[in-house]
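hey so u asked for the seq, here:
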Amino acid sequence: MQVVAFCTPAQPEWRWRIVNYSGEMVEESYETFLSIAAAVTDGTRRMDELTVRDLAERGGTYPRSTSYHRSR
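ran it, structure tokens below
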């Protein structure tokens, strides 16, 4: 799982969101923060408290071969 911080034009304060590797939201903060660093720090603390395991598969972490381009 990962912690992301976000803000919107309507609400310029930062909030955190915990998402799994499939991009699904696990939890979102109701509290707002003045800086992105404070939001990520609090979100990471909360993620560590969760007992939820991320069963989603990670996206392709290995780069694709481009050897087929070299033979042209």
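Residues 3 and 20 are 9 Å apart (CA to CA). The two ends are 41 Å apart (CA to CA).
lmk if thats what u needed
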